[in-house]
Specification:
Number of helices: 13
Number of strands: 0
Strand content: under 5%
Shape: globular
Structural class: mainly alpha
């Protein structure tokens, strides 16, 4: 079994190297969206994917070549440093473009894959993304993407950055958590109330 895993890793490395040499990421990215969860995880774990050059090429193909929704499932499996690299590149987009990316993720049903990218940005970038989400007219529709199947890690990530979340969005997230029976998460997400003397 171990020998097959090593052989599979070698095949993936060869594929990644060939795609990088041909700059054919726009051809490969649609295939990653069709991979099984385990295959995608194995692909994302390959050290050949983790170089800045490869990550930049993948991200550019996604952002400039209409492959954004194909990048999201892959990005969700990347280790934190590589996820942060992609998050930084995404954060460099202007507000209109970033809003489009958020909407595209939601339309494709990949909202929970977008959350890690949004939250992996630095404080300023994260606040900007969360403010864009808060300002959207159809925010209620976005919140419905948080379902009973949303992983605990997504909720915990939101809780960890709660201070960066605008108060209205915090309130809506807390309400959604409570609707889903996640009372502890709702308590952690709710904006702090100040008492008047």
């Amino acid at each position: 079994m171990r020998r097959n895993a090593v052989r599979g890793g070698d095949v993936l490395d060869a594929l990644i190297t060939a795609v990088a040499e041909l700059d054919a990421w726009s051809t490969l990215l649609p295939l990653t969206s069709a991979m099984s969860h385990d295959s995608l995880r194995l692909f994302a774990e390959r050290p050949t994917v983790h170089t800045d050059t490869v990550l930049a090429a993948i991200t550019d193909a996604a952002l400039d070549g209409g492959q954004w929704v194909n990048l999201l499932p892959l990005a969700a499996h990347l280790p934190d440093p590589q996820l942060a690299f992609i998050a930084t590149r995404v954060g460099e987009q202007n507000d209109d473009r970033l809003g489009d990316l958020i909407r595209d993720a939601h339309t494709a049903g990949l909202w929970t894959a977008m959350i890690p990218i949004a939250l992996a940005q630095d404080h300023e970038g994260r606040t900007r993304v969360l403010t864009l989400i808060d300002d959207m007219d159809d925010i209620a529709e976005f919140l419905t993407a948080l379902t009973p199947d949303t992983p605990d890690t997504a909720w915990q990530a939101l809780i960890q950055v709660r201070d960066d979340i605008p108060a209205r969005l915090q309130t809506r997230l807390a309400e959604r958590a409570r609707e889903l029976g996640r009372d502890d998460d709702a308590d952690d997400l709710a904006p702090l109330r100040t008492t008047a003397n």
